[in-house]
Amino acid sequence: MFERFTAAARQVVVGAQEEARGLRHGHVGTEHLLLAILAGPDDPAAEVLIGMGLDHEAARRAVVRLLGPGDDAEVLASIGVDLDAVRAAVESAFGAGALDPPVDEGPRRRGWFRSGGSKPARSPFGQGAKKALELSLRESLRLKSGQIAVGHLLLGVLRVEDGPGLRVVTDHGLDPAAVRRAVEAKLSPNGSARRE
Question: Residue 70's CB: how many other CB atoms inside 10 A?
Fold first, then answer.
């Protein structure tokens, strides 16, 4: 499926992973796809949302309000613990990345006959994000696009009815149907979404 993605759409998928990591969330959801779309303000799909008043910062605040920051940062901050200060102190003492999780180097042999095994790598994408990616392919096929652009990803996010991405859009006062129509217009052959 990813061979159909434009370079910009692939960057959104990578950006969604970065957004999730930046918020310290353990998975990638529709909200992270939405944030990654808005991180590229020159893309026609992002232009639609920004033109309607939803930019990256507003969406990020909404995601934090809905889901909270990961790793209980808010709870710790409420009792006076500054995680950024703790990270800076640990990294100054032990080096950059000292608090990052270790990289899995594959199975290690333990004992004489045991392999120790390792858990299979799990996709960081949650069910909502997987559904949005699948729906973006369906949107591309429906619109006879031949490729999956960033606009198709946004249409997929908007179709995940219980997804936080859609909730961010609606909580901001935007009508998902109006957003869909505007994005579809941008994706049409006369629109400007033919950017790679």
Answer: 16
Give the tokens for residue 174: 């935007």
3-state secondary structure of 37: helix
What confidence tens digit (pLDDT) does each residue in 6-62 have? 999 999 999 999 999 999 888 999 999 999 999 998 999 999 999 999 999 999 999
For residue 89, give both structure tokens: 């102190």
- Give the pLDDT confidence of 165-182 residue by residue, as tens digits: 999 999 999 999 999 999
The tokens of 10 are what? 């692939």
**Could you give the CA distance from residue 124 to residue 26 in angstroms, rounded to a whole number?**
7
3-state SS class at 183: helix
Task: Mention every residue, 6+ apart, whose C-beta is less than 8 A from residue 143.
Answer: 152, 184, 187, 188
Are the CB atoms for 137 and 2 separated by under 8 Å? no
Question: Contact 133/152 with Cβ under 8 angstroms?
Answer: no
Give DSSP secondary structure letters for 117-137: --PPPPPSB-HHHHHHHHHHH
Instruction: Kindly report the pTM of this predicted structure.
Output: 0.73
